[in-house]
Amino acid sequence: MINRTHRLSLTQQAKALGLSRGSVYYRPKPISQEDQRLMNRIDQLHLEYPFAGARMLRALLRQEGNLVGRKHVRTLMTRMRLEALYRKPRTTQRHPCHQVYPYLLRDLTVTHANQVWAMDITYIPLANGFVYLVAVVDWATRRVLAWRLSITMDVHFCLEAIEEAVVQYGIPDIVNTDQGSQFTSHRFTEWLQAQGIRLSMDGRGAWRDNIFVERLWRTVKYEEVYLHAYESVSAARTGLARYVQFYNSRRPHSSLGGQTPDQVYFQQLPQLHAA
To answer: Which of 77, 138, 191, 197 could be disulfide-bonded to 82 (CB atoms 3.0-4.6 Å)?
Structure first.
């Protein structure tokens, strides 16, 4: 992957690999093969039972012969950025400098492209490790507008993804995210505000808010990630690029009347299609 003695700069190497610039300087802490195996299984169980918290996941793992404690399951879930999807009291203490924005989609009818974009981050298992995937998705047409991989959970790769989407497709009315620190960070929120984009945030743990992007992650993982068992970051990047192209241009969606995201998105934005 990254070669610090290569003639290409670290920034150029990161861009070629589809990684954020900040992750180049990250020194990952080693993770045991057993924890890696558990994380991969927890990821699969979370997609199957998104309402399951650490206690239920521990029970499910123990049914399969995995003797693991609830606290360790919770630690691994935190590392993977997984949370049970159901509405909970808002008792979490937030960073005093990070504002959480209101949810703007409750009574909003989303009817056209670039009205609302959604962003989220998910865990992608590798043969010997893992990476994080962030995607920008057009809510009305299901089209994946941009995505990035990163080995760290910093804000850089989220910013790079939304910047690419805006450059290529224009400015949406609203961007909806969860309350993750990447999306509440000053760098992210101030950039959106500078573009005149309204920021909407899901209620913490609210399944209704997350279900749209959760369905995307389920599709990506079952139709691509789990089938190919990526050996490296570069293999993941290649495989995901191939799949996103298929997802946008070839995969029919029942919610779109059997059309593809590309067909619906560019029908609504003919000026982009012509460009």
So the answer is: 77
**Domain span at residue 40?**
31-84
Domain total in the chain: 2
Residue reference for tokens 């990161």: 14
Q: Are residues 146 and 232 in the same domain?
A: yes
pLDDT for res 147: 97
pLDDT digits (tens, 9 = 90+) for 44-58: 999 888 888 999 999
> What CATH number does residue 253 fall under?
3.30.420.10
The tens digit of pLDDT for each residue in 12-21 reads 766 665 566 5
Mean pLDDT by 10 residues, the chain (275 residues): 62 64 58 90 91 92 93 92 64 55 90 95 91 96 96 92 97 93 93 97 62 87 94 95 98 94 87 46
- Global pTM reads 0.78
> From CA 86, how far away is CA 95, in angstroms rounded?
22
Residue 253 sits in the same domain as residue 158: yes
130 with 199, same domain: the answer is yes
Whether 75 and 128 share a structural domain: no
